[in-house]
Design goal:
The chain is of the alpha/beta class. The chain is built from 14 helices and 14 strands. The two termini are about 30 Å apart.
């Protein structure tokens, strides 16, 4: 599970990265990509750990990459170098940080224009990738008779469709693909096919409030069907470096229930199409990651292949029901815990015990 953080120079993307990783990753090596792993905040794990007092508590985790923003000037316009996108091509979701504060140079924010500028750069990067591949395929097709179908001719037809869409300024997410085509393009790691979350990096005085600029940006995101969060990366970075008690006190003074970074981390997790199911006991309370829509047999295999091989039944109850009942044992006594077979579709927050025999 990998998330790439992108943004124009001065957008505050490295400040956001420091907030997400709570300052645990060195970020003063300008020109280098920064990578950090963070756990996914989960009050369900907190609750069960408080109940069981286990030897070990394990949260789900996500890897964040702050791409190295190497910029060149072309035609009086700032452009990312191709090596910047190399840092984030392998990620699963992009988080685009957009400036919504006055820059150090005194420039007022224009978040819609900035978002469109970076969007254009993503399109251009994908277009360059397609054109490079077309050049290589053309060499393979040299001497192939017209009308003959080969893997190369099939790929060329698809690449030409991709090129046409990108040249029209359309993201590849707007295209329709067959199952075979989806498999064919998977290895390209196209940037405009990746889910994207926009972070509007606001000044501290605008935390929790709206103005004409932020409303315009939210309308833009709504029309483009893009998920957007308002965050003050600078404040989040400062908060992240406090102790837990100091953090709670500081947030309370701002009238905030939880750090915005927690909301963003959870949104990234959801954008990946993932859920968490939980195993709990004195040895360990653990969140396990699973694709939404997966079945009990898949969950068993996620824990250990032996559990899937010898699967008999799954004892399961959702955390909300367990919490309301006062704990797992109380939930069993009240008939909340159910026995499910291998085809049961696991839900987010399910607490499970696997019965198996090998």
């Amino acid at each position: 599970m990998k998330i790439g953080i992108v943004g124009l120079p001065g957008s505050g993307k490295t400040s956001l990265f420091r907030a997400l990783t709570r300052g645990t990753v060195k970020t003063d090596d300008y020109g280098e990509a920064h990578v950090g792993v963070v756990h996914v905040p989960d009050i369900r794990i907190d609750y069960l750990s408080a109940q069981y007092k286990p030897k070990k508590t394990t949260y789900a985790s996500i890897e964040f990459t702050d791409g190295a923003a190497k910029i060149t000037q072309e035609d009086s316009r700032a452009r990312f170098g191709s090596d910047f996108f190399a840092d984030v091509r392998q990620v699963d979701v992009l988080v685009h940080v957009v400036r919504c504060f006055t820059s150090l140079e005194g420039n007022p924010p224009n978040p819609v224009a900035d978002a469109q500028t970076l969007g254009d750069e993503l399109l251009l990067a994908d277009l360059q990738l397609v054109e490079n591949r077309i050049e290589r395929i053309e060499k393979q097709l040299h001497g192939v008779k017209k009308g003959v179908t080969t893997p190369a001719t099939t790929e060329m037809a698809l690449l030409e469709r991709l090129r046409d869409s990108l040249e029209q300024g359309k993201s590849l997410k707007q295209m329709q693909f067959t199952g075979d085509e989806e498999k064919s393009i998977r290895g390209y790691d196209f940037l405009t096919l990746k889910p994207m979350i926009l972070v509007l990096n606001v000044a501290e005085e605008f935390i929790g409030s709206q103005n004409e600029v932020t409303e315009e940006f939210h309308n833009y995101c709504a029309q483009a069907d893009l998920l957007c969060f308002d965050i003050s990366a600078e404040v989040e970075m400062e908060v992240a470096e406090l102790s837990d008690d100091e953090e709670a006190e500081f947030l309370a003074s701002l009238g905030i229930d939880e750090p915005a970074r927690n909301v963003l981390i959870q949104a990234c997790y959801a954008a990946l199409g993932l859920i968490s199911f939980i195993t709990a006991g004195e040895p360990e309370v653990r969140a396990w990651t699973l694709k939404r829509g997966s079945k009990a047999i898949d969950a068993a295999g996620t824990i250990h292949s032996d559990l899937a091989r010898g699967f008999i039944r799954m004892e399961v109850a959702n955390f909300k029901e367990i919490e309301a009942a006062g704990g797992w044992e109380s939930a069993k006594q009240q008939g909340i815990v159910q026995l499910q077979g291998k085809d049961y579709v696991v839900q987010d927050g399910d607490v499970v015990y696997i019965r198996f025999k090998v």
